Amino acid sequence: MNSNKIKRIFNKLKTIIDTEITLMDESGYIIESTDNEKIGNYDNNFKNVDLRKNLCQIGDYTYYFFNFVDGKKNVFSIKGKSEETKKLVEIIGIFLNADFNDVSQSELLRNLLINGIEDGDLEHLNKKFYIKPQTTMRALVIEVKENVMKELENLICHIYPNELYTKISNNLFCFVEKCSKDNDQYFIQIYDAIYSELFYEPKIGVGTVVDNIKDLSTSYKKAVKSIKLGKLFFQDRNIYYCKDFGLPTLINNMDIKSLEELYKDMNYNNIDEILSDSELVTTAIKFFQNNLNISVTAKQLFIHRNTLIYRLNKILKISGYDLRVFEDSINFKVAMFIHNYIK
């Protein structure tokens, strides 16, 4: 467990306990305290504290030591020496020690993905679960409906019992893929397995490849962002890659008023007419997916080449954009993205 989590626990305790409470390291240096003037100083009573005991009382304070992952001890103190204070300190101490010692692989991984990881936790992760820090990997985030999550967990556990994965929330699940930079197999296999076994089409965000487990949080966050943007800009897909979101990211970072003005300048009334026609929209999307190749697009749409040319000419006549011309196709795609984003 990292120091950030210790501080979060401590801050929650401060809101519950209506007395002075202080957190310090094993040298007596005060990390946090409800008395702000004490932060950054040393506890004057600490030289009299018996380090061999978990709990001791000195002056007006009760002290409790709890183990940290690297073998060192942290200390918290509460002002007071009554039996009630002592019992409260012991209860908090039991909770902290249990939380540090019994954390599961899934909990550690989830914390790593959401909050990042520090060297102490990294060493603990390596020792307890035999995970090498220097490993090429990436995060695959799987989004499903809440009622499918339990089935998804069971399926992944059955297919990949020795891999790293964890439930993030009621509809987000993360699978850690050990991979090379050109390996695109796992997420396709996972998608196919979910589709065939659960009869469900998940959304999968593919994070960037990293060379160290410390950077896995970055890969995870990019995968989550890919799903968010993918559902807005690529509604015909279920698997999203970070590398495809250059233009959508730019649009996402613009304010709505600027987007609306840009869309209006792009002959939006006529483009709206096209985007309300499912046949023309499908034609445009397939044409873009096949790099403006008429023959391949016609084959995938199961239509004659001349039929495709007729539809492209219809789009040109309505919007003024000829999708066979690279610059026009880019502008039209931008207009489609803005339309989907605003709507």
TrEMBL record:
Stretches that traverse the bilayer: none
Pfam families: GGDEF_2, HTH_30
Domain PucR C-terminal helix-turn-helix: 280-336
Residue runs in coiled coils: none
InterPro entries for this protein: CdaR-like_regulators, CdaR_GGDEF, Homeodomain-like_sf, PucR_C-HTH_dom, PucR_C-HTH_sf
Superkingdom of origin: Bacteria
Residue ranges constituting the CdaR GGDEF-like domain according to the UniProt record: 121-228
Similarity section: Belongs to the CdaR family.
Name of the molecule in the record: Helix-turn-helix domain-containing protein
Source organism of this protein record: Clostridium ganghwense
Lineage: Bacteria, Bacillati, Bacillota, Clostridia, Eubacteriales
